[in-house]
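Hello,

I think I submitted the adenosine monophosphate job twice by accident. Can you confirm which output corresponds to this input? Input:
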Amino acid sequence: MMYIIFLGAPGAGKGTQAANVAQELNLVHIASGDLFRQALEQRTELGIQVKSYMEKGMLVPDEITTSMVLERISAPECGPGVILDGFPRNLQQAKALDKALAEPAKSIDKVVYIKVSEEELLNRLSGRWICRNCQTPYHAISSPPKVWGKCDKCGGELYQRPDDTVETVKKRLQVYFAQTAPLIDYYTQAGKLLEIDGEGSVDEVSRRIMTALSRGLFVAE
Ligand code: AMP
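Support: Only one job matched these inputs. Its output is below.
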């Protein structure tokens, strides 16, 4: 059973890299933002509750987020372990997660922190297009799809997230630096942080992550 967290600002490449590593290590990829977007699309009770927070680039309240993620983690298919992407997003969520895992005597194994400069984050988010079906991200300039508007992997329709507008992106980055960045210290102190340079091609970053994880997870420290 393995628990790995992917930490980083919006646009750092968490989603892409978390999906790759989950496939590589046979773990379940849980992305809190994707779960919320699904709920929004399906207009469920949860979707109605979270809509206004997401539109403003604010964090959804902790009780809603934490119970959604903990419920998902405890599903039988998560038996081999999970990669958490976008959760925890603040100290309260991190502590709630530690507490929930401690009861069945489990804990977070490693935290992959993907570091990208603020300038690069803004550039990536403003050109981002995402598959409505499988969530694969593209970039209008640096990684366009083969056929404009269509996903290379599944043929799904590409769209721009409504919270990728300049104003909301600024707000999301502000929220990240104020609330999420303190988790870097929290997991460093716990001896769990693996800092990865997130600039470069997707493959380069993937290789850096796999190397750091194989040292961190599989070699006695
Ligand atoms: P993301 O796809 O990870 O960028 O998340 C999109 C939006 O979903 C965020 O801007 C928040 O409104 C909400 N969200 C996702 N994960 C969390 C979380 N762990 N805590 C609170 N809100 C979240």
